[in-house]
């Protein structure tokens, strides 16, 4: 039998390497060598306490205990330090993302062309300035040649030499000969040079063609003008108004940060080394600085004081984006300062606008962040909410998601715009169900569609349960299953704009709330995704039972903490994720939460109405070719009311006060005729007996109805109303999936 001790590394007799040896095997030296310390100088006593004396003196104090097996944990402690060391990115951010690269290139091209254009229009002015300074330049060159030929700089030295050699005639004559010889050589060279230049000038002026003459004159004037320019003034102007925005330097950032007086920053106000710059470099359309704040100051505190920081940096707040990097430590600040505020940087184009399809199981492009990097959102297996004050881009954002879903031909689309606008109209040609408005028939169609979705949910749950475990290992719809037409497990994307109208509806509100809540909670696993947008993010517009289960959040501009946290999630405001900081010009700019670990800012891609139309034309062509048009898109306008709820249809054709049938009872034959007229695609040619059979499962029995002296089987309206009232009570959907096939 072996004891645990026999396997401990470092046990003297076990033949295994001890920890120091292990360290040496990993790093080629022991930890002591690795840190440049004396071998055997124990810094930590076996009991874990610091040995200050030893550390200071480097003297080995009783080294033996440090080599005892119980000192073994020291080595792993040392090893741990190395992997956590920061690794710098091999490639900078702007080279790692196509969007960031495009943003950088666009900035460089934009900057370059601006500078070129600025100077190009001023060329005549520059030419005049140069010509004006050319005579001075000529004078300066002549003077310089004279100084060189006469060697004026060394006049004093020559005089001193001659004076000192006066007593030695030979030396005196040699020095004089040397200086004279040099003066003659240089003088001759200067005369020849000037004569040559004059000769070339005269030759060009008399013999060369005008183009050469002009070019030579321009070059000569340019050179003379540059030589003759004023020392303290530039010939060219400044293309950039550098005085307006001071250059972003480490000093400027440091001063701005220290001015916030956070944590220990107040104490270290004059210690400029307290703010440590790890990197500062151009990144996309701006600069990124990685900074270690002084101990005690946190990145989230800086985020809270963003406007003060922007003031310190002398830039608009929309350019200044402080973020933390909690994975490193709380004091690590990643500061991004854009060249322009996000709102001014031009609408972001959508990569799928012109070509390409989408796979709803994969992330789809949503927009770009403040650094110009692409931001994606994954629609599958998640429901989401979009909130904002009016006119900030909520409907456009919802439409963008719908367009992405439309570009995956498998996705069945249900879209409702209760505001009654035309923004979602482009979707109508590919949608299974689409309504714009909140008229009674729109709301009835909505409810019918919701009930149909409940049935579909039940069917899907049963299909998934019936499939073998290896086909559905996680019990949810997969990419492969969604593509199989025989199973009918294609994704369903349901979008509601202005949800407050739906949830606060007198007649249907409670049922809609109950169904949507269940779909948001359990729909994603069976491939039903629900997205809700509202301009009034409160508990009535998006009940908490629903918002709590929606995992994706998009929050455009909101006015207060409550709305912010309603959309983005509890404590988001407190943690510095504040959509309240977006201004009224920040159209389409939102916080996206639920996609990665941390919420990100995204400027959503801008797709206008005509572009949306073109995209859905593309989607329509693909769907048609694949036989994927259903419901409304397939021309079945009644499809969204085809729920089997014959009771709804009966009430639609059966007024409460029916003068021809005063006692609230009507022959079934008559009701069949009315239904056939109202919804011919469903009831054309029906008989009274078929109507009776259809209502029977709802628990409604036929009654004798005497009309114009004839007795026939018929229905009582009161029974239908009572039954519908019961159905409108909150259904217990949790029981639905547990039902077995009949
Ligand atoms: N991503 C975007 N980039 C630039 N501008 C945008 C963007 N999205 C929307 N806008 C602009 O914002 C305006 C308002 O958009 P939208 O209709 O989607 O707002 P809304 O929040 O739905 O308004 P309401 O609350 O009235 O329904 C649009 O007319 C559009 O010009």
TrEMBL record:
Keyword S-adenosyl-L-methionine in annotation: no
Indicate which residues the UniProt annotation says bind ATP. Answer: 388-395
Keyword annotations for this protein, in alphabetical order, are:
ATP-binding, Nucleotide-binding
Among Gene3D superfamilies, the record links this protein to: P-loop containing nucleotide triphosphate hydrolases
Asked if Amino-acid biosynthesis is a keyword of the record, the answer is: no
Where is the segment annotated Disordered? 1-21, 38-85
Q: Which domain of life is it from?
A: Bacteria
Q: Which Pfam families match?
A: FtsK_SpoIIIE
GO MF terms listed in the record are: ATP binding; DNA binding
Looking at the record, the residues that make up the FtsK domain are: 361-565
User: Can you say what this protein is called?
Assistant: DNA segregation ATPase FtsK/SpoIIIE, S-DNA-T family
Give the organism, scientific name. Promicromonospora thailandica
Lineage runs: Bacteria, Bacillati, Actinomycetota, Actinomycetes, Micrococcales
């Amino acid at each position: 039998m072996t004891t645990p001790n026999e396997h401990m590394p470092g046990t003297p007799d076990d033949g295994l390497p001890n920890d120091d040896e292990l360290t040496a095997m990993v790093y080629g030296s022991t930890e002591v060598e690795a840190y440049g310390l004396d071998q055997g100088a124990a810094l930590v006593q076996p009991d874990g306490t610091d040995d200050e004396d030893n550390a200071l003196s480097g003297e080995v104090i009783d080294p033996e205990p440090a080599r005892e097996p119980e000192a073994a944990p020291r080595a792993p402690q040392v090893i741990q330090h190395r992997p956590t060391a920061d690794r710098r990115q091999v490639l900078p951010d702007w080279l790692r993302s196509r969007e960031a690269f495009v943003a950088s290139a666009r900035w460089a091209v934009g900057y370059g062309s601006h500078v070129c254009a600025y100077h190009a229009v001023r060329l005549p002015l520059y030419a005049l300035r140069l010509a004006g300074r050319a005579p001075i330049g000529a004078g300066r060159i002549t003077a310089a040649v004279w100084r060189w030929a006469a060697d004026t700089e060394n006049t004093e030295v020559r005089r001193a030499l001659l004076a000192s050699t006066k007593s030695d005639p030979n030396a005196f004559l040699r020095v004089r000969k040397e200086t004279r010889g040099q003066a003659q050589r240089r003088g001759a060279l200067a005369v020849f040079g000037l004569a040559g230049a004059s000769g070339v000038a005269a030759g060009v002026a008399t013999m060369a063609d005008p183009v050469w003459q002009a070019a030579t004159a321009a070059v000569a004037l340019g050179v003379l003008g540059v030589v003759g320019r004023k020392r303290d003034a530039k010939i060219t102007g400044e293309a950039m108004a550098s005085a307006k925005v001071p250059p972003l330097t480490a000093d400027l950032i440091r001063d701005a940060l220290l001015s916030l007086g956070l944590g220990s920053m107040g104490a270290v106000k004059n210690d400029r080394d307290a703010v440590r710059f790890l990197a500062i470099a151009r990144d996309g359309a701006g600069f990124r600085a990685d900074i270690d704040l002084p101990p005690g100051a946190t990145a989230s505190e800086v985020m809270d004081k963003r406007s003060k920081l922007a003031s310190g940096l002398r830039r608009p707040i929309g350019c200044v984006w402080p973020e933390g990097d909690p994975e490193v430590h709380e004091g690590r600040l990643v500061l991004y300062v854009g060249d322009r505020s996000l709102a001014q940087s031009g609408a972001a184009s959508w990569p799928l606008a012109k070509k390409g399809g989408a796979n709803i199981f994969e992330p789809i492009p949503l927009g770009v962040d403040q650094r110009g990097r692409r931001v994606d959102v994954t629609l599958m297996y998640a429901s989401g909410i979009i909130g904002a004050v009016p006119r900030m881009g909520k409907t456009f954002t919802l439409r963008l998601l719908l367009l992405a879903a439309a570009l995956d031909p498998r996705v069945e689309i249900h879209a409702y715009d209760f505001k009654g606008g035309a923004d979602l109209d482009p979707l109508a040609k590919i949608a299974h169900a689409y309504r714009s408005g909140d008229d009674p028939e729109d709301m009835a169609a909505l409810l019918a569609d919701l009930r149909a979705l409940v049935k579909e949910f039940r069917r899907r749950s049963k299909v998934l349960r019936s499939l073998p475990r290896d086909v559905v290992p996680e019990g949810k719809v997969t990419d492969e299953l969604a593509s199989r037409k025989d199973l009918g497990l294609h994704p369903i994307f349901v979008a509601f704009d202005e949800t407050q109208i739906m949830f606060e509806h007198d007649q249907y509100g409670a049922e809609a709330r109950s169904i949507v809540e269940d779909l948001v909670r359990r729909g994603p696993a069976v491939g039903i995704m629900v997205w809700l947008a509202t301009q009034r993010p409160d508990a009535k517009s998006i009940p908490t039972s629903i918002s709590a289960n929606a995992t994706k959040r998009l929050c455009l501009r909101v006015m207060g903490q409550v709305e912010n946290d309603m959309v983005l999630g509890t404590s988001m405001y407190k943690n510095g994720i504040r959509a309240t900081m977006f201004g009224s010009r920040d159209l389409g700019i939102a916080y996206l939460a639920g996609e990665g670990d941390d919420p990100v800012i995204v400027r959503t891609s801008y797709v206008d109405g005509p572009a949306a139309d073109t995209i859905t034309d593309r989607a329509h062509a693909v769907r048609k070719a694949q036989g994927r048009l259903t419901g409304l898109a397939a021309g079945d306008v009644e499809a969204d009311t085809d729920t089997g709820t014959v009771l709804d249809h009966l009430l639609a054709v059966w007024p409460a006060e029916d003068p021809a049938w005063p006692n609230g009872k009507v022959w079934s034959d008559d009701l069949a005729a009315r239904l056939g007229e109202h919804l011919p695609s469903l009831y054309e040619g029906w008989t009274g007996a078929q109507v009776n059979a259809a209502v029977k499962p709802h628990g409604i029995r036929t009654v004798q109805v005497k009309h114009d002296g004839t007795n026939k089987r018929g229905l009582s309206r009161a029974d239908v109303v009572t039954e519908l009232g019961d159905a409108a009570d909150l259904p217990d959907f949790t029981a639905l999936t547990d039902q077995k096939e009949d």
